[in-house]
Write a structure and sequence with these properties.
- It holds the Pfam family ABC2_membrane_3.
- It comes from Hirschia litorea.
- This is ABC transporter permease.
- InterPro entries: ABC2_TM.
- The protein has 487 residues and is of the alpha/beta class.
- It has two domains: 277 residues, no CATH class; 174 residues, no CATH class.
- The protein contains 19 helices and six strands.
- The strands form two sheets. It has a four-stranded mixed beta sheet with strand order 2-1-5-6, sandwiched between helices.
- Helix 9 runs parallel beside helix 13.
Length: 487
């Protein structure tokens, strides 16, 4: 029996490994993942500066926009500062961040606030991506011509095209009545959001002025706002080298768990498709008859599952070696955040659920797809049968993505007990350190569901492989059953 299973598994494994598609998938998948991870950051860094103009009889909107952009710059700089201080002691971290926030609130620019914080390492403020270009001809017709024609203007960095124009309309007493935002780019919304924030700032400032509060007093009030530090439950040991503050290291396991769960889903449904197409090919070419003269139906099914499982292990092992090589050679190219996520992904409390989830999910879904393949003579029949099943099986992917924001929700907890979803959602809940009873329950659910799927698959597989039962026979049986009930 074991020898028969091994011979079938080896046949399946060598058949897939020798195919060109296997090697393309082996190489293109990590390249695609790397592009998906690195390209968004590269796009943000490579995003060009955009230039706008404000058409207004006063300067309050211009000043408010500059304040809005500087506020965004300060927020981005503060995030970079917190990340750069991740290895510093809690006391030093709090002292530097408090100095930065106080200096900025007192009127310093982000660059000046960084100097005031006395950093032990060099750090530049995040760049501002929007700059104003004043126009001599402020007529609406001229502005719209510039926007539609793409004509270049003299900007702070040479010739620049105009990205947008902000037209401020005022009433007879000089109060803003409406604002027109004109731009050929209808997708990018950052400047529109900045304009809305600037108008809110002006409205609040006018209200403060009416009650006698000056701009200096507002700045002084901002400077007195205490710094916010997020902590886990526990002692606040700010004077020691360890603290209960929430850091990137604490958040990384949740992001890593989501990445593992999505990768697991993609891997499972990539390899089980091999089982479906391979079984259909063998059935349509009458290869089943030859195979079943040497091995039993159970051995054939077990050998196919083992062969593709070996194929999955080859893919995973190759990708892990590629990741290790990349980590040893691009150390300086990756941000500290990427390394935190990588370390979190190697945590045994994520690796063990991932391996268990993959094994259970693969056997469960693999058995289902094998059974479908044994009933179909053509790929068209399989597609018609598999379409509603695949739509149902995409549910785990959507739930995983939604659960990223709240893996501890009651809905995710309840869905984790649904056998089709358990292999993926148990990984998402692993960083929460679930109780032993929940872990044991998830394992039992997967064992029962996998055993039931394999039991049903053997019987369906035998009906299709040995008895030649196909989709036409099932349709005829359903028609006869419906006709008897109708009569």
């Amino acid at each position: 029996m074991i020898r028969s299973i091994w011979l079938v598994a080896r046949r399946e494994y060598l058949g897939y490994v020798s195919a060109l598609g296997f090697w393309l998938g082996l190489l293109l998948t990590p390249i695609g993942l790397a592009v998906g991870v690195l390209v968004p950051g590269m796009i943000m860094k490579a995003q060009p500066a955009r230039y706008y103009t404000v058409i207004d009889s006063q300067t309050d909107v211009q000043d408010a926009l500059k304040w809005q952009f500087e506020s965004w710059q300060s927020s981005d700089t503060l995030i970079a500062l917190r990340q750069a201080l991740s290895s510093s002691s809690p006391a030093e971290k709090r002292q530097i961040i408090s100095k930065y926030e106080k200096a900025y609130a007192e009127g310093a620019s982000p660059a000046e606030a960084l100097k005031a914080a006395n950093l032990p390492f060099p750090l530049s403020p995040s760049p501002i991506r929007f700059h104003e270009i004043p126009l001599k001809d402020k007529s609406i017709e001229h502005v719209e011509t510039l926007l539609s024609s793409g004509q270049t203007l003299d900007g702070p960095e040479g010739k620049q095209t105009l990205f947008a124009a902000i037209i401020v309309n005022r009433d007879q007493v000089g109060k803003i009545s409406s604002v027109d935002y004109i731009s050929p780019d209808i997708v990018n919304s950052e400047l529109r959001q900045a304009t809305t924030g600037a108008l809110k700032y002006i409205s609040r400032f006018e209200l403060f002025t009416e009650v006698g509060v000056t701009a200096t007093q507002i700045r002084e009030a901002d400077a007195d706002i205490p710094s916010l530090f997020v902590r886990k439950p526990g002692a606040n040991q700010i004077n020691d080298n360890q603290s209960s503050e929430v850091t990137l290291t604490d958040r990384a396991p949740f992001v890593a768990a989501t990445i593992i769960a999505i990768s697991l889903w993609l891997l499972i449904f990539s390899v089980v498709n091999f089982l479906l197409t391979g079984t259909i090919e063998e059935r349509s070419n009458k290869i089943f008859d030859s195979l079943l003269t040497s091995v039993s139906v159970t051995d054939l099914l077990a050998g196919k599952l083992l062969g593709v499982l070996m194929l999955s292990a080859t893919l995973l092992g190759s990708w892990m070696l590629m990741a290790l090589w990349a980590g040893l050679n691009v150390d300086q190219a990756l941000s500290p955040a990427a390394w935190e996520f990588a370390r979190a992904a190697l945590d045994p409390k994520l690796i063990i659920p991932a391996l268990l989830g993959f094994l259970a999910g693969y056997l469960m879904y693999g058995a289902i797809f094998l059974a479908m393949g044994a009933l179909c003579d053509t790929i068209q029949e399989a597609q018609a049968l598999a379409t509603p099943l695949i739509l149902m099986l995409t549910t785990p992917l959507f739930i995983v993505i939604m659960a990223l924001q709240n893996p501890s929700s009651g809905f995710v907890f309840m869905m984790s007990w649904v056998p089709f979803l358990t292999p993926f959602l148990m990984i998402l809940r692993a960083p929460l350190d679930p109780p032993l009873l929940e872990i044991t329950g998830h394992i039992i659910v997967m064992l029962i569901a996998t055993t039931l799927a394999l039991w049903c698959s053997v019987r369906v597989y035998r009906a299709g492989a040995v008895n030649g039962t196909g989709m036409k026979d099932i349709k005829n049986f359903l028609k006869k059953s419906t006709a008897k009930k109708a009569s």
